[in-house]
Amino acid sequence: MGKLAVYRYFSLMFLIITIVVMVFTFAGLFGGSVNPTGNTAMAMLVYILPILIILNVLLLIYWCVRRKWKWIALPILPILCCIPYMGTLLQLRTQPDDADSQKGLKIATYNVQVFGRETTGFKAEDILAQMKRQKVDVLCIQEYAEASGDKKNSVSYKEYFPHMAMGENDMVIYSRYPIKDKKNIPFSDLGDGTGWATNNSAMWADIEVKGKTIRVFNAHLETTGFNRTLHQASKIAATGRSIANNRLIQAIYGNYALGMTIRAAQAQIVANEIATSEVPCIVCGDFNDVPYSYTYNTILGNLVDGFKECGSGFMYTFREPKKPFRIDYIFHDERMKGISYYTKDISYSDHFPVFMKIQL
């Protein structure tokens, strides 16, 4: 009887764990539709969806090994429901060999991290060379710096990209096609009550491509503040003062929660601008948020995620090995068609550049 009791106890525990993981997985899937303002806990579950999917797979294997067929549906159902989410991270296709020969617009987005603040202009020049090699027609840059020492980067870029539109602070759109109009979209007054000062912003430029006008958005949304919190903690520790683990966790959670709230307001501003456009839109930028998040879903709206349409492999755009997140995106109007979507391992920033060929 003792062994039977232990057996039943462990079976009950695994059943409870399976149900809890299933509930959290569904909550994570729907968390991206919940505004994080006032509901950060549910909105934050989207960040651990990959872990929850792995747990469901392990629990599925466990119930199969145990031959408890009636409980197999509990992990299978959330796994099947997560297939659209998994498509934002992984696509089992290859890039077409003839992408460059197909007619279309080649667009790129790249957070250049102020070109590393170097003064020779080398990084800016080499990034330009990379864009030439990739045959980029429109380039959206975040964390841009106009000056590299005594040089102006726009002068260097002008030969290949004769048209440019400057945004607020560190935003720019370079184009090989004429820019007919532009608008800067500051995020300085969100009306969210946080009183948070930000250098982030968005912009758009109307570009005439062979008789067609398209509106290209370039957006750079608020960061999470995770690295900033750790940096502040290390500075305090360097003075000899100790930091309780719970205080550090609270600070990290607080910065994530605040970052999500600010990005939610910024994403809504961008979405409103997209909605007012009378011409087809392409949206590029560093959103500082993961797929299926509220930020992602708000900006995506009725647009098409280029990676889901024509990307390949496992997609991440943040270069730090410990944080392989996809936070840089290219979306486009449903009237357009994606041809190719990929990143390049260019080591001049903490981001990878994202490239997409679009048939207008």
Give the overall shape, derived from the CA principal axes.
Answer: elongated
Q: What percent of residues are in strands?
A: 15-25%
Oligomer: single chain
Task: Describe the strand arrangement of the main beta sheet, using strand numbers.
Answer: 6-7-3-2-16-15
* Sheet having the most strands: 6 strands, mixed
Percentage of residues assigned to helices: 25-40%
Poorly predicted regions are 191-195, 229-238, 241-245
Q: Radius of gyration over alpha carbons?
A: 23 Å
- Summed up, the helix count is 11
Return the structural class: alpha+beta
Termini gap:
71 Å
Overall pLDDT metric: 87
What is the string of helix and strand elements? HHHHHEEHEEEHEEEEEHHEHEHEEEE
Number of strands: 16
Keywords for this structure?
elongated, alpha+beta, 360 residues, 6-stranded mixed sheet, 11 helices
Give the structure's gist in a few sentences.
With 360 residues, this protein is α+β, with helices and mostly antiparallel strands.
